[in-house]
Design a protein that fits this description.
Elements (H helix, E strand, L loop, with lengths): L6 H8 L3 H7 L21 H18 L4 H21 L1
Helix pairs in contact: 3-4
Length: 89
């Protein structure tokens, strides 16, 4: 870790939840320190993520009485926003 790094920044960089990052590293809070080494949890493969996203989109569409097309469009926009945020770092 470098001075000024935060757990949230590290989690966003590696695309993992900060809570999962804290759990894997047995952190009691979100404090990290320069020179500290953190383990990054294994990421699920892209097929697992795609299936999970499809299930979530169907469930959200069902609960909100809309179609998955609208959910997919919103997900695409959110992904683009996240990419812009990541590129800004």
């Amino acid at each position: 870790m470098q001075p000024g790094d935060t757990l949230l920044q590290v989690s966003m960089k590696f695309r993992v939840r900060s809570l999962e990052l804290a759990k894997v590293n047995q952190l009691l809070d979100d404090m990290i320190y320069p020179g500290q080494l953190l383990k990054v949890p294994d990421l699920p493969d892209s097929n697992d993520l795609l299936r999970r996203e499809e299930r979530m989109a169907k469930e959200i569409a069902k609960n909100n009485q809309t179609g998955t097309y609208q959910i997919d469009s919103m997900n695409d926009m959110l992904s683009q926003i996240e990419e812009i945020k990541m590129d800004g770092d």
